[in-house]
Design a protein that fits this description.
The complex is a heterodimer of chains A (337) and B (167). Chain A is 67% helix and 0% strand. Chain A is mainly alpha-helical. The longest helix of chain A has 34 residues. Chain B is mainly α and 167 residues long. The relative contact order of chain B is 0.07. The chains are: A mainly alpha (337), B mainly alpha (167).
Chain lengths: 337, 167
């Protein structure tokens, strides 16, 4: 089976345990653990960073220092809430939607490398896998919006779908530029190709485009038209409460972590550190994910929401032409040198 | 049976049943969602054949773009919200076309890749390098022809969709 999946490198887990199934279980546990812990950390970071940026305290009482236990309190609250399904809703699809929105981001974490031996799976076509998975998540949002039997939910889902269709193209094109320079599609291969120079330097516009398109994929501010609370309540998630709503939140924060990780791999040299600063590889990767996630939150505190027509115009008339021109430049560079 | 054969059986059964569900579902949105399951199973079969690149492109293009456009179009136009159904009255005509296409494909595939020769077609792990070499070395002309066709379709869509103020 390993051969079928086209595993290129050797993970430290495979060296640690030669039994295929034991290694598989260990990897699954590690990836799930990462997915259940790190996005919560990013969520907590969002609470605190936004509170500081907006000059307000936020909840400070739970726990001792700075209200650190608020996250646990929120989790307990979500679990306690009643599981409400609207009477007119399509129950099966309504219940499946949070899982469909969440699973693709777990899958992306599987190929995220933290060093040349610290990863779960090194697919030969790693970046294609990531792009495929990130495009599936929107089906969950569409399912949620349609099955809720609520016009605001449906409008939110349609906005989300229109946005994702428009911004998937610049996302893929930005990644294609990196793949052209690196000459490989595996995540570790892309990182190793940045040994001497991080791609953020020669491909800076593509890095900016990738981050903008990631924000739009995640429907984060300034691209949060699909959940614009002043117009359509909370978009596709309006009818959701309790644990199902928590799953959507987890998908959002998991998505921030996953796409920050992908951006770090594509443009910031992944687990490769700057020369002269001796830190272990996984620490570098974690630091880059943390820094990019912080930037995503920072943007939320900075920018107002884009209007739907501005949003579409920006994708089709600015991002896509610029990324095409830059890919052309990268191709010329690759052939000439 | 080997692990691959078990996996293929599961994928074939799931994909086949959901394909039947696509055409028998009384609700168009349900049909589109069953189509997602079918397409994912097809992607899984590609994976088992070692065509990893094709498998993920299948999911990226068909699940990630085409089905989403289907759902978007359905929901934007006439998909009834919630549990209501929407069905049409042309089941028998549809069944006739379906059986015809199925018979034609079985005939063509049997002609091109006879079952008794199945041993000849070994599965091998096709890397992106191999796929790229194959497309841009051996099949450049068909590739260019297809991209020309797609460009024509694209321009055609723009011509049909644009509103001409002058006329």
């Amino acid at each position: 089976m390993i051969d079928v999946l086209g595993q290129a490198g050797t993970s430290f887990i495979d060296e640690f345990s030669s039994n295929f199934w034991a290694a598989l279980i260990l990897k699954t546990v590690l990836v799930m653990g990462f997915f259940l812990v790190v996005p919560l950390g990013v969520g907590y970071m969002e609470h605190k960073v936004l509170a500081h940026m907006q000059g307000r305290l936020g909840p400070m009482e739970a726990g001792a220092f700075h209200g650190w236990a608020q996250l646990i309190a929120d989790g307990v609250k979500f679990i306690q809430k009643e599981n409400v399904v609207p009477a007119a809703a399509d129950r099966t699809i309504f219940s499946l939607a949070p899982a469909v929105a969440m699973v693709p981001y777990i899958a992306i974490l599987v190929v995220l490398p933290f060093s040349d031996t610290f990863f779960a799976l090194d697919l030969d076509v790693g970046i294609f896998f990531v792009m495929a998975m990130s495009s599936v998540s929107v089906i969950g949002v569409l399912m949620a919006g349609w099955s809720s039997a609520n016009k605001f939910s449906l409008i939110g889902a349609l906005r989300a779908a229109a946005q994702l269709i428009a911004y998937e193209l610049p996302l893929v094109l930005a990644a294609a530029g990196v793949v052209m320079l690196a000459g490989v599609t595996s995540m570790i291969g892309i990182v190793e190709a940045q040994e001497s120079l991080w791609y953020v330097v020669p491909l800076f516009p593509l890095f900016v485009i990738f981050m903008i398109a990631s924000l739009a994929e995640l429907t984060r501010t300034p691209f949060d038209m699909p959940i614009a609370d002043s117009e359509i309540i909370f978009g596709a998630y309006t009818e959701y409460g309790g644990l199902k709503f928590a799953f959507f939140l987890l998908a959002e924060y998991g998505g921030i972590v996953a796409l920050s990780g992908i951006a770090a791999v594509l443009f910031l040299g992944g687990y490769k550190g700057l020369p002269g600063i001796p830190l272990p590889d996984p620490v570098w990767m974690a630091a880059k994910i943390g820094a990019l996630s912080f930037m995503v939150i920072w943007l939320r505190a900075t920018f107002p929401r884009l209007r739907e027509d501005q949003l579409q115009r920006f994708a089709w008339l600015t991002l896509i032409p610029v990324s095409l021109v830059w890919i052309l430049g990268a191709a010329v560079f690759k052939v000439a040198f | 049976m080997s692990a691959q054969e078990y996996a293929f059986t599961v994928l074939a059964v799931v994909g086949g049943l959901s394909a039947i569900a696509v055409v028998t579902a009384r609700n168009v949105v349900h049909a589109a969602l069953y189509l997602v399951v079918t397409l994912l199973s097809v992607g899984g079969v590609y994976l088992l054949l070692g065509a990893e690149f094709v498998a993920w492109v299948q999911i990226l293009i068909y699940v990630g773009a085409i089905v989403i456009l289907f759902l978007f179009g359905l929901m934007l136009t006439k998909a009834p919200i919630g549990r209501d159904t929407l069905d049409n009255q042309q089941r028998w005509l549809g069944a006739l076309v379906g059986v015809g296409v199925f018979a034609g494909l079985v005939f063509l595939i049997q002609e091109a890749f006879p079952v008794q020769d199945a041993e000849r077609f070994e599965t091998f792990h096709a890397t992106t390098d191999a796929v790229g070499e194959s497309i841009f070395r051996n099949y450049v002309l068909p590739f260019e022809a297809v991209s020309f066709l797609l460009l024509a379709a694209l321009i055609g869509a723009i011509v049909l969709a644009r509103k001409d103020d002058a006329s």
